[in-house]
Amino acid sequence: MQGKNIFAMRWGIIGVGAVIGILAPLLQKLGNPGNMGICVACFERDIAGAIGLHRAAVVQYMRPEIIGFVIGSLIAAYLFKEYRPRVGSAPIVRFVLGAFAMIGALVFLGCPWRAVLRLAGGDGNAILGLAGLTFGIWIGTLFLKKGYNLGRTQATHAAVGWMLPLIMVGFMVLMLIFPQVDGQAKSGVLFYSLKGPGAMHATLLLALGVGLAIGFLAQRSRFCTMGAIRDTVLFGQTHLLSGFIALVVFAFVTNLILGQFKPGFTGQPVAHTMHIWNFAGMTLAGLAFALAGGCPGRQLFLAGEGDGDAAVFVMGMIVGAGFAHNFSLASSPKGVGPHGISAVIIGLLVCLFIGFTMRKKSV
Amino acid sequence: MTTTVDARGLSCPQPVIMTLNEIKGGQDKEIVVLVDTDTSKENVMRAATSQGCRIGDVAPEGEGYRIAITKD
Hints:
Oligomer: heterodimer
Largest interface: A-B, 30 and 23 residues
Helix content of chain A: 55-70%
Strand order of the largest sheet of chain B: 1-2-4-3
Structural class of chain A: mainly alpha
């Protein structure tokens, strides 16, 4: 048996939450968009834009943080002999859940990480988002209690687990071959933003370094924002929640120190004030995360340690971002997109269908 | 008698749900849980401990672990 994993102890998960809480506002200070030091959904959406899966001009950038998350987790998994290539637990369902999770998150404008970063930056709209997230996860726990599950994975070839990490390495290589050129919206095959959130970013090396560090730590600690709420609701187990709370507290303090705390509902960066749809968008995202077994960050870390199904969820999110912008589902600071409301309703119906129909007691 | 809970291949939170169901509803005092990832191992041990159970032997088995739990 290996030695104890200190990161999986109570103070370990709190420490990791604290590190993320400090690094995210710092990344914002060093160039990332407002209250978006790290946002897994937004950054995957930017990646979708960088490779042209959508052509929303203001959100196109190959975010090195996401690449770092996957590779950092892969390194930790290999170092600690936890790399377990596995696949085959309802991959297409995970793809669909990933796509609708992204659509829900983009109606609110952020993943759970950004929801708490927005709160820690003073954005009151985040309260509606977090309430919706909790509500969606609560619906998910009802399905879990009724026997909902995605079925078993199979152990597989090591190379299967390398696929998403290799895709990420490929993205990094593309970014090095076709770096951003000042004042140009395209460099080689990659798209870049000239204005908007996609034009705001910390330097490549810094973003990649922070991504690698967080990926490493999160793999060790199993940090998961959806799990934090789910385990509290389902089992009264507050282990993961303590990490999530540490993230909020440390991000809040860091924002205060950096002068980034601006309380209010209106005029918040990359946010809108349509309360019902902030709530409902995150309800959809929360339900989809709960049914898929992890928040978008956790799915990246799982993919890094060999989980091919989590990798499919990630691809679902990236493709979902393409749909979200091509079909005008994503919100903007002006409010929800023309078809955002219909998409949330359809997404909720799809999630309910999945929850009701995949309830075999033991697979 | 010992009951075996086979949670291999199932992802979070299934192994914990299955273990808790057995702890709360099962007849046997001795439970063996089979898991295939370190995360599941940690989660199952944490859940069993929180129910006042004793963790016995935790041994590698195949691609994963075999966790012995005793109910009080």
